[in-house]
Each structure stands twice: as C-alpha cells, then as structure tokens.
Amino acid sequence: MAEATSPDILNDIWLPGRAVTIWRRKPQPTFQDWIDAVAPDRLPQGRVTLTPDRAEDAVTVLCDQVGLAPSPNRSMLTGDIAALAAIFARVLSVDLVRLRLDVVQDNACTLFHADTVPARLLCTYRGRGTEYGVSDDGDAPRTVTSLPTGSVGLFRGLLFAKDEQTGIVHRSPPIEGAGETRLLLVIDVVSENP
To answer: What Pfam families does the record point to (predicted)?
Structure first.
C-alpha cells in the first residue's frame, strides 16, 4: 500500500506488492456541506460505459435525471468525476471506463473481498468511506482502515496484469439502520466480457 496527497501516487499501482494506492485529499468544506445536505433522492446514480472525455456530460445527465439543480458545487462534483475517469484511464492505459455512481443506504457489500476486475477506483463523496485491510487467509483483516471521505483508492483486482497475490481486501462499511447515506463512485476497466 502507498498513499500521498498527490494524484501521481495512483501510478504506483504498477509497482511490485502495491495492491492499493491512495490519493489522500480533503473535500472543500463548502462542497462537503452541500453534498451532505442533498436529499438522498436527488443524488445522482447510474452506470455508464464511456470514454473519459464524455464523463462530465454523462454525470450531468444523471444529475438532471434526479433533479439536482445546477450549481457551482454540482459542477465541482461532475468535474471531479470526469477528472478521476481520465486519471484512471491514463494509469491503466485504457480508452473506455465503466463509471458507476451508487447511493447507498444499507449494507451494500459488507463481506471483505477482492474484485474480479483488473483494477477498481473508489471514491466516497458522502458518508463513510470504503474499509480495507490485508487478509492472508481470505477472512476479515485483523486491522481495518477506512478510506477517508473524498480520498481516492485505486485497488488491484483479481485480474490485475501482474500475477501477484497481495491479500488486500475491501468492503462497504456496514451502515444499515444508521440513517446514513453514502454517495460512492466506482470506476472499472471495461472487460472483454461485460
């Protein structure tokens, strides 16, 4: 694992033993206050496969579909997602990405696991971030770390190009019954067999 306050750290996913790279960043307080106050039914959600240069327009459409009014903060959200799609595509040397925005209010995926993808980018814009740790035997890790809200995690998947078992697993934090709403961005490589 490696982390830094620069997006360049995401390139380190290719280094031996690097199962996850984390770009630590803090959301602007005005943005975080805004996204935390948006009604859950007004948060954008959906799945699209696209070239990164179309990501901002696609997320704008998702915002329009749920009636999330245009604003500087909405533009910050759509612009950030587009930037992350471009970074992901550059780091993984791909032309197409699968972008997913999920509004989560329950226990979405509470079992620790590694994804059956080459790599996955995760960023939680609202709510608790993804939990992760090292598991040598497939069970829950002894030490669990949470990806801070707004930070970006790039996780190797089981189909990563380098044949290395790193033991990094992750999960969505259990939030059922807590009254919490998460807005999670997931970006994947588009597989040959969708």
So the answer is: DUF1826 (PF08856)
Look at residues 97, 112, 68, 107 and name the one whose alpha carbon lies nearest to residue 185: 97
Question: How many structural domains are present in the chain?
Answer: 1
Q: What are the φ/ψ torsions at residue 2 (nearest 5 degrees)?
A: -145, 145
* Domain extent at residue 130: 2-189
pTM, 2 dp: 0.93
- What is the tens place of the pLDDT at every residue in 19-48? 999 999 999 999 999 999 999 999 999 999
Residue 194 inside a domain? The answer is: no
Which tokens sit at 13? 């996913």
- Across 66-105, b (16+ Cβ under 10 Å) vs e yields bebeeeebbebbbebbbebbbbbbebbebeebbbbbbbbe
Encoded tokens for 90: 């550059």
